[in-house]
Design brief:
Layout (H helix, E strand, L loop, with lengths): L15 H8 L2 H15 L28 H9 L13 H9 L1 H12 L2
The protein binds iron/sulfur cluster (2 copies).
Length: 114
């Protein structure tokens, strides 16, 4: 499977929700739902764990990704991901990266090679 880097820099193809969906494995979906319910103090159910990744047009996304402004913006600007954007790193991306340093590192790595 090719690596999918989201607009924000998250590696979708390493996300447990993405992996459970691609395997169509309900035992894994259940584990992810339980893990994230604890982690995010929210009621996440097996049926919520369906995701084809940020760059997919299938419409299957999980949680925050369904309402994400970074994804919407990246699609409107038609960039491969935010590393390729002339406005990198905008305020909304910088705010997100404070919570997701790995995603930031991924985009910084891409920018270093552009
Ligand atoms: S939807 Fe947003 S937060 Fe989710 S992977 Fe895509 S850009 Fe990142
Ligand atoms: S403006 Fe920000 S969120 Fe939008 S594509 Fe550029 S870096 Fe990403």
């Amino acid at each position: 499977m090719d690596k999918m880097i989201a607009f924000c820099g998250i590696t979708c193809t390493e996300c447990p929700a993405f992996l459970a969906t691609q395997k169509d494995d309900d035992d894994e979906r259940k584990k992810v739902a339980e893990m994230w319910s604890k982690q995010f103090n929210a009621k996440i159910e097996l049926k919520d764990i369906n995701c084809d990744g940020c760059l997919s047009e299938s419409g299957r996304l999980v949680g925050y990704c369904r309402i994400c402004e970074i994804r919407k913006c990246g699609q409107e600007k038609v960039v491969k991901n935010c590393a390729y954007c002339a406005d990198y790193a905008c305020e909304k991306l910088s705010k997100f990266h404070k919570e997701a340093p790995d995603a930031k590192n991924t985009l910084e790595g891409i920018r270093g090679n552009i």
